[in-house]
Amino acid sequence: MKLLKTLIFLFPALIMAHSNQDLQTAYQQKGTNYQPRTRHIEGGKAKFTNHLILANSPYLLQHAHNPVNWYGFNDEAFQLAKQQNKLIFLSIGYATCHWCHVMEEESFEDLIVAKSLNENFIAIKVDREVLPDVDSHFIDISQLLTGSGGWPLNVVLTPAGEGFFAGTYFPKNTLLAKLKQLQNVWQHDQSLVLKTAKNIKDALREKTISATKPPQNLQSLAVQNLLKNFDEFDGGFGDAPKFPHEAQLLMLIDEQMRRPSNDKLNAITTTLNAMAGGGIYDVVGGGFHRYATDNAWLFPHFEKMLYNQAQLAMVYTKAYQLTLNPFYKRIATQTLDYAIREMRNGGFYSATDADSNGEEGLFFIWNTDQLKTTLGADFAQFQHYFDLSDTTEFEQHQVIHLKKIDKIQASDFIKIDALLAKLYQARQARNKPLLDNKILLSWNALLLKSFVSASNFDDKYLSVAQNLADFLLDNFYKNTLKRVQIDGKTSQTAIFEDYAYFADALIDLYDAVDNEKILIKAQKLTDQAIHNFWDKQKFGFKISNNKRINNRKEIADGALINANAVAYSVLNKLSARTQDIKYQQLAQQLFSSFSTQISHALNAHASIITHYNAKQQGALSSTLYTYNGKIKIQSHHRKITINIAKGWHINANKVLQKGLIATQLNSSNLQEVHYPKAKNINLSLSKDKLAVYDGKIILNFSLKSAKFTLATLNLQACSDKICLPPQQIKVPLN
């Protein structure tokens, strides 16, 4: 027994390693419906089975039968690298990544490449959507070494797990040459490799930077800076490939709501019209593709990600609130309905692939013969609304998109929808792209927030939001918070973004349904995030606690709205709703820790700037809190509801003494306001009677014109013994 314990201590990989029999058993347990993804088939079975067969990630299982002997990102692989003193070849991708599929087919299914990797390296595969913290760490290394990053991301590490070489897609011959060079350097000059790896590790260490006091007009400056990159012809910011950059659009909309101008409105409408009218939007089935490969948004990279649906639905919902343009409501609704119809199974799946039948975009594109066959006599009408010119040609087909959006009337959409229904029905008979059936907590939380926001114009989404919240709480949040569910099995410890996005969405849901239990859950999640991820020395939240990576703190937006920015908002919201000042103090520390970084690159930090502006100037929300939560204000359906905490009151609209601040709603677009009857009371701080409102009151109003209206609500909160300073609160009325 003592000898066994000694062996385990010296060689822990001995008891961790999985035998070939273990892998074959796992393969057999997949069942008869399991189809190996490989060209190496003998007798109806996969010739090769590697350690990824033990995983449940769809992306890892795609590679489970490559001839490359892949491992997951786990102790078994790293112990083996140390034990054999081999370099680690780490490859990161995701299930719906087109170029990941290309590299798999060219290289990882190739026997010569597999031989090189298996003999000289320990090969590790990572699903970036399951382990975004790991992905972020190695993207940082790639950017340090090459100035860029992307997927597939391939990084070579020392046996100790420290990166020193990185690249994205490599053709087979290039990859083989790189592998040979790297192995040669490791054999003959390990000191050079170790020195390079140490320099990179040192460069990744967080440096202490003094705080910068932000200007009062931080968001206005950021928007001015953003507009310098605006593409006046095609919308968006910068050149192709064009991504939606939802955080920047939300900041731009927020600024336009506060300080309207023609240039900001033009940037918003031009961009949103171009995206919704371009090929990046799936006009047949609803929802957005990940990005456009051209400046005009016509040719998408055809994968569809859940996080894009969540964030772009929010963008178009806010744009509808700003402009009251029914086309934006239509796009938000169709995007959410697409997710409900095609991505939901309790929670919502992660993505669909760009490829079907081995070809990119084949499921989504049409040729003229297919259109004529499907539409029959309606083809002529289809040509009236949709662009079938040479400018939309993709692989001898067309990417379907509307033309002249600004000239389409509401009545036209009745005809358009009838045409699209025929195409949708025909398309459903095609071979569908691969569905990534991971249910990710963080992405679902983003979608939950969008459903709550959309419930402002359609109550059905509030019911969907409540059901989703119940599912996530029941399945992901028992003793500890989990991150991933696949085939009904929840796994993977949650990272910081899961806590931040989920708490934020639950607070929004609490505001909508006024269920105290939901707020308690959000507060508990936030407290746990503080305990697990808060940097007590330098402040801010770490991305995770993974011991194998540099757990740095991030504040810049990426494909997802930044989690620290969301947490800043969560902390301020909790402070207002719970009257616990510790959350506000943490929020101040968080912003201060990133303030210099933010000031040096405004465009990269739209989310934190928007939330900082909301704290300084008041949030633009249908539910607002003031006086540390003593006053709750809700604006909805031509009425404002004010809930006043017990023991407090506000002055009535018609006060009985001069000098008192009357409750008053002001806007140049107000037609009339009906105030409730006042209550006349005597208080110890005044000998005279006071006209006040307490408890719950409702202000009914009407507008002169149907347009976005930001009103000012003047009020002053008082108790029996003290009056607090008067406030002017910005309240959106529609």
From TrEMBL:
Pfam families: DsbD_N (PF11412), Thioredox_DsbH (PF03190). Keywords: Signal. It comes from the Bacteria. Residues 49-204 form the Spermatogenesis-associated protein 20-like TRX domain. The keyword Signal applies. The keyword Cell cycle does not apply. Residues 632-730 form the Thiol:disulfide interchange protein DsbD N-terminal domain. Gene3D superfamilies: 1.50.10.10, 1.50.10.20, Glutaredoxin, Thiol:disulfide interchange protein DsbD, N-terminal domain. CDD domains: SSP411. Residues 1-17 form the signal peptide. InterPro entries: 6-hairpin_glycosidase_sf (IPR008928), 6hp_glycosidase-like_sf (IPR012341), DsbDN (IPR028250), DsbDN_sf (IPR036929), Ssp411 (IPR024705), Ssp411-like_TRX (IPR004879), Thioredoxin-like_sf (IPR036249). One of its GO terms (biological process) is carbohydrate metabolic process. This is Secreted protein containing DUF255. It comes from Bathymodiolus azoricus thioautotrophic gill symbiont.
